[in-house]
Amino acid sequence: MTRIAPTALYQEVAERLRQRIFAHELAPGDWIDEQRLAEQYGISRTPLREALKVLASEGLVERKRGRGCYVTALSRQDLDHISPLLAVL
To answer: Which residue has the higher pLDDT, 84 or 30?
Structure first.
């Protein structure tokens, strides 16, 4: 029988934030309040920041130097690029 690998805390946080973004609990353009989220989840800001790095690499959040992270907002041009791809799928 194969063992189930434990999930790192930042991965769990990234998944929860991903779900909140997809559910529009964190809307496009929203600023992500790291302190508030860390308190809500009962964690330090370090795993939260690691989770935000993961989400930034996926394009779900934008990291702005000195201003924090924001949920990525899609432009009309982004939608024009995505639409043909969705039609193929």
So the answer is: 30
